[in-house]
# Entry
Amino acid sequence: MLNKFLKVDWVLLFSTILLLGIGLAVLYSISMASENNGSLSIFWRQIIFALIGICAMLFFALTNYQNLKFQSTTVYFATLFILAVVLIFGKNVRGTSGWIGIGSFHIQPVEIAKLSMIIFLSSFISQKKMELGETGRLVASIILCGIMILLVIKQPDFGSAMVLVGIWAGMTLVSGVSTKKIAIMVTATIVISIVGWFNLQPYQKDRVMSFVRPGSVDLKGAGYNVNQSMIAVGSGGAVGKGIGHGSQSQLNFLPEKHTDFIFASIAEELGLLGSLFVIGLYGIMFYRMRMIAMAAPDNFGFLVTIGIMLMFFVQVWENIGMNIGIMPVTGIPLPLLSYGGSSLIVVMASIGILSSINSRRETKLDSEEYSSY
# Structure
């Protein structure tokens, strides 16, 4: 155990803790402005989620990640079952029936689905690479992952579906496909997007159209969120107004300031320098994830690392993009910063899996399996 502890990627871990700390500081500021009749504030709830997340991270860090390969099929079908159940019994929050209520807390299964797809697809590609061939593997992955994505679209949660498509496309590309197969992937992505469009709620379509045609947007209607977010980002200046002094977030002009638009809250209170610091921390995390992928002891570990990196990247790009008006509003959380237990716990568990892969980077494995890349 001491040997594994010494092989922890301390740069990745330190960046993770710093981002978590920044998120908690901003959430504390927000919760002070919207404290709610003695119930748990969003800050204290997030503290609880963070502690659970740290336990999940430690559990996966000390567990052999290769065990996930043998459980990948079970994880896949269990996830499909939960996604189907949530369509029937799920609690509707902001137009999406993607939540399961447990007392005063709510679980969002789609966050678990992101990590489940990474584990299943990594196992599928690494084991079926030689058995099915390139075409068979691609078609099978489209069908198997497409079922999960369509269940998410039916909630409807187009933002999370977009993350799942990004994970599938990126992991398939790094597994090695020809130009013709890339064309098939693009076609599949377009088909899924079209299906997704017709399953969106009217307000969700308005969000997309406000991005496509910003000049025709009603700033008091569909364009209100993005407009207030951009005002908050711009008003922060170089060094920000200080924690607890952001007028847009403290006076509730900024909607969803603790989830979708937490980056705007950060930009307003910590300014341009604080925003760049946050983006820089994400950049360091992506670099360390790349290093872990390159040193992974087997194909499965390599693909899992790439999948987690893609999950982070798509969410960071989309969330920050929608906060500054260059991406449509989709409701995707910002990893480690946005309020939400499901997202935070899954992200921390993912960091734990990366630690497990990194701690076994010198393990000798079957050369035949590794030579497939």
Notes: The chain has one domain: 19-34+41-370. Residues 19-34+41-370 form one domain. The beta strands are 91-93, 96-102, 105-107. The first strand starts at residue 91 and ends at 93.
